[in-house]
Amino acid sequence: MLRRQSGVTIDDVVAKTGWQTHSVRGFFSGLVRKKLNLPLVSEVGKDGMRRYHIASVASSKA
Prior knowledge:
This protein is 45% helix and 16% strand. By secondary structure, it is an alpha+beta fold.
């Protein structure tokens, strides 16, 4: 879900996994960013929803 260009909201991950919102945020911070060292990008869209996605390697080096 994080590899999709459109990204994913925390609510999307909660619905898919059944986790609580604080667990999803901890997963993003602890595992995705720190342990896996993936460039996680957080953006707020025109609809006001915050979406997360893993940036491509080329864009993360810029």
